[in-house]
Known about the structure:
The chain is an alpha/beta fold and 286 residues long. It has ten helices and 15 strands. The longest helix has 13 residues, at 236-248. It starts with a strand and ends in a 17-residue tail after the last strand.
Amino acid sequence: MSKLVVIPDTKxxxxxxxxxxxxxxxxxxxxxxxxxxxxxxxxxxxxxxxxNIFVSLNKNILNSELKCLExxxxxxxxxxxxxxxxxxxxxxxIVNRLNLDIxxxxxAEHLTTNYFTVNYWYKNGIKGTYLSSEITYxxxxxxxxxxxxKLFVQLFGYISMYVSKRHAIKxxxxxxxxxxxxxxxKLYKEDKLYSIKDNNDGTTIYTDFILNGxxxxxxxxxxxxxxxxxxYKIDTKDMLDVIDIYSSVxxxxxxxxxxxxxxxxxxxxxxxxxxxxxxxxKKYDK
Length: 286
């Protein structure tokens, strides 16, 4: 049976998610993207309340950051976290070299798309994989049938489409000498409005829609280990309703709960769950 994992949007909401039997994913300042980032003191404080916490260290690591990362991983290994999400292979290498007691979850954004690669990393010591948000329901099912690795799949919330270490917005504002201290920006393109976050960790662009995989969460409940719900830009009260919906869905109430979701959010979508990702050179796009 799948467990629910929330990527919180505010520190204040985390205890609410604990109280609803959810795990949470938090990042660490300077080493995480697409997450709510906290420091080690805050992590220790949260663990004193509840240890249903995964830590995300999912950024590309610079050579100059390796020593700091090593110290961070040693400190984390002494804490009772459920696991650590990683992007850069150096995290796996450090954990293996120092024989640290950490459950590693491969979280390489758009690369976690097939069971061959998942099984390769599983044989090299990882315990879980956060699957790409760009693969279909059938592909998720296929991976689940061909691996022993624990699987994390996002089935609700805004999806990170693009991540860069470059400060796309801040550099633009600086180039044109524009004063703007907003924490969030918008991109309007082809009748769609995308949310952009440009902070110390770089630039992230999110989908214009909220992924709604409620039906799929029911179909996959015995196939995947963790269903990820992303609370980015979603009010805590609404998110608690989402948690209630996803934790109580069954074959008898699916239609009622789908309608309940629709009444809360007006931009729900199935994303890529039933649409294969196809890359084309734009001038040949038909």
